[in-house]
Amino acid sequence: MNCRQTKQLLHDFTDGRLAESVAREVQRHVAECSDCRVFQQRDRQLQQLLAVKRHETPGPDYFNNFLVEFHQRLAEVTAPRATFWQRLSDRLRIEPLVVLRSGFMPALGAAFVVALLLRGSALPARVESHTPNVAMLNATTVSTVEAPALLAVAQTDFHTPRYVLDRITTAPASYEVASIHF
Amino acid sequence: MTALRKLASKLTFRPETLAEARQAEQVVDLAQVADETLVARVQDGDAGAFDHLVERYKERLYATVYHMTGNHADANDLVQDTFIKAFTSIRGFKRESSFYTWIYRIAVNRTLNHLKRGKNRLQFSLDDIDSHIQSDPDFVELMSHVTPRREVGLTELQEKLNVALQKLSEHHRAVVVMHDVQGLTHADIGKALHCSEGTVRSRLFYARQQLQGLLADYL
């Protein structure tokens, strides 16, 4: 048995955890090798020094609030996580819309509904034209600036009634054409 | 008539008293029941049973983590995290090992990860030394020799030990703490660290060699 092997077994030898034959070999080597004897002695003293660690305690009141703290932390961990929109609104310190609190898809749906409503309000109350192009002429007011463009569109549309074209054509240039309804 | 009233009041059934008595009885029982029973109750949805496991093991887990980190705040945070992790994943605990082995493994792994990430607070906050140290034969023998350790106070010795331990690698420190401080067997350490007994012995050997060098003035 060499020094390295002996040193690795010394601790178990001291604790009496080695088989009898192995222990005898270690004992023989230590008796003959001063280096290993010093190592054994220092190892023993190290264990004595580490005894200090075994007696460290955190004080009598240290764990008084441990369980309460555990419940608080557990509640934080198990609470439902904030969505992206909630975190964003929290960071920006803005009060989010109610729909945004529910997540992205409801928000998108709500935005779509709002867009539809806005588009609906922009359209005239009565849309009875034959084609989309003519529907533009149903606008309550057509400005003089827009009139030439509308005329061009209407002229290319085969469904535009003749009297519409006449009214646009004859519209005075200085003021707005009022309410072309048909 | 009065006597009859008194008798009637004594015989009156008070359900709240009975409930309190049953609750008290349950508390006493739960504090004494085996880990397996408590774990089964938690797995069946009785979250309150987990409190008894926390009470039972908080100090032992704290000691392990404290020796590895060297300060109170980290030790407290890591032990809290360990219990939270154990609670949230207890349904996956198949009871192949004891609850303590399982939660001990969680604590050690979380502490090692914490140390590897370098998040450990650099300053030490030392625990007190209990009065039993004066009757510890190792300590008595330690102080009986004429060496520099006799000149330094206990707190300084404690500090030197902590500094030396923190200079070891995380895995070397873990085996020293688990074996030389807490007295776990090589086999138990191997299970906790997912390595063989041979690896544990080898790490212990190198760790002790390093500690001998670091604490040469006190040996």
Strand segment count of chain B = 1
Rounded average pLDDT of chain A: 73
Overall shape of chain B: it is: globular
> What is the H/E order of chain B?
HHHHHHEHHHHHH
CATH superfamily label of the domain at 128-219 in chain B: Winged helix-like DNA-binding domain superfamily/Winged helix DNA-binding domain
Shape field of chain A = elongated
Instruction: State Rg of chain B.
Output: 24 Å
Structural class of chain A: mainly alpha
- Overall pLDDT score of chain B: 83
- Uncertain segments of chain B: none
Radius of gyration of chain A, rounded?
46 Å
How would you describe the overall organization of this protein?
The complex is a heterodimer of chains A (182) and B (219). Chain A is mainly alpha-helical and 182 residues long. Chain A folds into three domains: 3-54; 64-122, no CATH class; 132-178, no CATH class. Helix content of chain A is 60%, strand content 3%. Chain A contains nine helices and three strands; from the N terminus they run H-H-H-E-H-H-H-H-E-H-H-E. Chain A has helices spanning 3-14, 20-32, 34-54, 66-78, 84-91, 104-122, 132-137, 147-156, 162-169, and strands at 56-57, 141-142, 177-178. A two-stranded antiparallel sheet of chain A has the order 2-3. In chain A, helix 1 (3-14) packs across helix 2 (20-32) and helix 1 (3-14) packs across helix 3. Chain A is elongated, with a radius of gyration of 46 Å. The termini of chain A are far apart. Chain B has a domain at 128-219: Arc Repressor Mutant, subunit A. Chain B is built from twelve helices and one strand. Chain B has helices at 2-11, 15-32, 35-43, 48-69, 72-88, 99-116, 137-144, 148-151, 154-167, 170-181, 186-193, 197-214; one strand spanning 128-129. The termini of chain B are far apart. The model of chain B has no long low-confidence stretch (mean pLDDT 83). At the A-B interface, helix 1, helix 3, strand 1 and helix 4 of A face helix 4, helix 5, strand 1, helix 7 and helix 9 of B. Strand 1 (56-57) of chain A pairs antiparallel with strand 1 of chain B.
